[in-house]
Amino acid sequence: MKKRGLSVEKTAETRQKIILAALDSFIELGFANSKVAAIASAAGLGKGTIYSYFDTKDALFEGVIDYLIEETLDPIQSVDLPDNQTVADFIVEKMVASVSNIESSGRAHMARLILSEGNQFPHLTDLYRQKIYTPWNQEIQKLLQIAIDRQELPSSIDTAATALLINAPIWMVMVHNGVLVRDEPMDLMVLFVENVRLIFKC
Amino acid sequence: MKKRGLSVEKTAETRQKIILAALDSFIELGFANSKVAAIASAAGLGKGTIYSYFDTKDALFEGVIDYLIEETLDPIQSVDLPDNQTVADFIVEKMVASVSNIESSGRAHMARLILSEGNQFPHLTDLYRQKIYTPWNQEIQKLLQIAIDRQELPSSIDTAATALLINAPIWMVMVHNGVLVRDEPMDLMVLFVENVRLIFKC
Amino acid sequence: MKKRGLSVEKTAETRQKIILAALDSFIELGFANSKVAAIASAAGLGKGTIYSYFDTKDALFEGVIDYLIEETLDPIQSVDLPDNQTVADFIVEKMVASVSNIESSGRAHMARLILSEGNQFPHLTDLYRQKIYTPWNQEIQKLLQIAIDRQELPSSIDTAATALLINAPIWMVMVHNGVLVRDEPMDLMVLFVENVRLIFKC
Amino acid sequence: MKKRGLSVEKTAETRQKIILAALDSFIELGFANSKVAAIASAAGLGKGTIYSYFDTKDALFEGVIDYLIEETLDPIQSVDLPDNQTVADFIVEKMVASVSNIESSGRAHMARLILSEGNQFPHLTDLYRQKIYTPWNQEIQKLLQIAIDRQELPSSIDTAATALLINAPIWMVMVHNGVLVRDEPMDLMVLFVENVRLIFKC
DNA sequence: TATGAATGAGTATTCATTCAT
DNA sequence: GATGAATGAATACTCATTCAT
Q1: In the structure, how far is the CA atom of residue B67 from the C1' atom of nucleotide F10, in angstroms?
Q2: CATH number, domain at B166?
Q3: Chain A, 9-68: which CBs lie within 7 Å of strand F?
Q4: Is C7 in CB contact (< 8 Å) with chain D?
Q5: Does one domain contain both A38 and A117?
Q6: Which of B101, D94, D121, D173 has the fewest CB atoms lying closer than 10 Å?
Q7: CB neighbour list of residue C163: distance below 8 Å, 6 or more residues apart
Q8: If you ran DSSP here, which 8-state letter would residue A116 be given?
Q9: What's this model's pTM, rounded to 2 decimal places?
Q10: A44 and A90 share one domain
Q11: Which residue places its CA closest to the C1' of nucleotide E3?
Q12: Which Pfam families does the entry link to (chains A, B, C, D) (predicted)?
């Protein structure tokens, strides 16, 4: 069989094309208003082909979210914290990369899709929470605990609540820039860093 | 016309029934998955009656959002700030009432509907921004400016960004409690107050 | 009871208003596209009132046609033929009045309603045939027989066919002016008289 | 694409099936009373298939009329008139074929559909006038002018009016046989020929 | 008697999904 | 594997008709 390898690549490539076309459509039109036929057409494929790769339209949406989760998975790791760096600096440093490309990487789109369609896809909300949201919050909580241990933060703080406070500007800006005030976007980086400085009083 | 008075009451009551049934359905199922027939049935009315009050399903959704906006309109007013109260205390005090009933008053539902359906209803997003979001942010910015004038805050802060920081925990908690982690709700009040204290360093 | 008489008049007047409003609507929009509510509104009445006078929308249409048939009933009578007038002259003279106001009297509208809606209202087509179409043709046939007897026409003619030939320009013009070429109406009188002259070779 | 040929044939056949089933329904029930589902069923197809071929029920009706116009287009041509044949004979000869199959060819149905539904489909009335009615009348007028030139007719006649007179029996019979007196049909051929003889006095 | 709010049967239309080619 | 013609369940919406006032 001369090009079995190629065929596998081809398949992966076709799958990719479908997912990207579907993602565009879901972002622009939402799940309910996206038509399988239009996605197929945008992917340069026939309708039937979509169904060779995904059993149902729901499965296609799950495939898109799965893809985004895998693609954008890049968790902050508390174990990477060097001894000679403050927790605040570490968080800021680590988040610069992550936060600066939150829109271009598709992570903002993913989050907004979870916000808008999550109610109807509890399974995906669960997945997002398990793979992205909760791990991130837990790593932040670990870092906060380390900060308390190092006396960079008072022991009186509630780590769960403070983790949410660190997270809050990210969601605020995703809502602000992506839904409510698209023509005057706020700079997430500025907000995020300022917020960390306030929390760590530094 | 003798029974005109009754008739007006009756129609207002029917309209109310429709809106409340529709609201429940939109919150639970989203717009696309809500069926007009089911809403009518839940309201104890015939399908046709819905269409006597709203031309289309879209118009019904707009009616629901309009209703929520009118119902929940209760803006913070910077002019109410007493001389003998700090801006931080004023914000906290004013927001206690507002924030404590954010779920029960329907304001959280409204916000989440805007998040989930707003893309497909730009007109409603505009309305929400004009009536709720922007006025709130602007009043907060005025208060921040007063705080700067009173030297409760350094003049170096960016009032637009800081207003968003004050807002951020509210959206964070609406997302956290309403979408992602429904079984372990975070106490918005705690988060909000703590955040104000951090910002005002008090 | 002071104004029972008035009440009867009022009732007849209301009925008249309904029929005229309905007629306008049926002519302009056809039966299927005419809405009872719109007819009521055009008549300055409530929807329910229509149903006090006509059981159903179909009955309303029948009422309109009945009204037109009664209103416009003005048959040519062969017994009116004077001895000292040719049949051709008699037909022409009698039809001048009838044909000249065929549009303004509503007879053309009635005929076109029968054409356009008759298939769905066989009862009305029957009525029209019995009250208008067949009597007219039969009187014309009687006149043609008299003309044969008087040797104004050869005995070889087929009176049924010739009656239709006399009728033909009327329908031709109703179709031409009313449906196909509204902006360049043909003068029915000219056509009708010329046609009679051709048939009677005079 | 290998099966493209087959596919094209198949779709043409399906389109034909739809049009014929729709035509039957429109003739029997009229446009408003024809149900898309019933037409689909009569065509041995699913409802959705109709909508793959015609965007709306209105478009389906237009498709049917278009089809009839194309199918039945067979105009009399004045240029075909031989020198050694009278105009009257030419008209009679040419119309024998055309008129004798006016019912079986669908032309009568088409004309009656225009009569009954034309008011609601001005576009189709226009099309019918442009493609069928006006060309026919114009060719007849040309022939009448030739007849005048050849002195087969006096120059005093009005060609436009006389063309309508020639046409009149056709419409008269379509109305008579198709709407009013279906059980005693008149022989169109007899009427048409007799009428031409009267007009040409031959 | 007149009204118009309420009703729900009836219909056009959409679109995810199937499957023969 | 890829295709797109065919399908029909599902749904928004209409409007003749009823009936309480």
Answers
A1: 29
A2: 1.10.357.10
A3: 10-11, 14, 45-49, 51-52
A4: no
A5: no
A6: B101
A7: C137, C140, C141, C144
A8: H
A9: 0.90
A10: no
A11: C46
A12: TetR_C_11 (PF16859), TetR_N (PF00440)
Whether A88 and A181 share a structural domain:
yes
**In Å, how far is A38's CA from the nearest CA of chain B?**
17
Based on the domain organization, do D96 and D156 belong to the same domain?
Answer: yes
Assess whether C170 and C81 both reside in one domain: yes
**Per-residue pLDDT of chain A in tens (202 residues, 90 and over written 9):** 344 445 677 788 899 999 999 999 999 999 999 999 999 999 999 999 999 999 999 999 999 999 999 888 777 888 889 999 999 999 999 888 888 888 888 888 899 899 888 888 999 999 999 999 999 999 999 999 999 999 999 999 999 999 999 999 999 999 999 889 988 899 999 999 999 999 998 8
Does A30 lie at the interface with B, CB-CB under 8 angstroms? yes
Residues 6-45 on chain D lying near strand E, CB distance under 7 A: 6, 34-37
The shortest C-alpha distance from A42 to chain B (Å) reads: 20
- Is C115–D118 a contact, with Cβ atoms under 8 angstroms apart? no
Considering CB atoms only, which of B117, B125, B168 is closest to A172? B168
Is C1 in CB contact (< 8 Å) with chain D? no
* A172 Rama class: left (phi>0) / alpha (psi -120 to 50) / beta: alpha
Say yes or no: C61 and C119 in one domain.
no
Q: Among D17, D47, D69, which residue terminates a domain? A: D69
Burial D61-95 (b: 16+ CB within 10 A, else e): bbbbbebbbeebeeebebeebeeeeebbbbbbebb
Chain C residues with beta carbon closer than 8 angstroms to that of D33:
32, 120
Which residue blocks in chain D are alpha helix, DSSP H? 4-33, 36-42, 47-53, 57-72, 87-100, 107-117, 122-128, 134-149, 159-175, 188-200
CA distance C148 to chain D (A): 17
The shortest CB-CB distance from A32 to any of B28, B32, B134 is to: B32
| CATH number of the domain enclosing A57 | 1.10.10.60
The residue behind tokens 């596998």 is A8
- Identify the domain containing residue C173 by its residue range: 75-200
**Running DSSP on this structure, what letter comes out for residue A103?**
T
- What is each CA distance from A156 to A87, A149, B200, in whole angstroms? 17, 12, 18
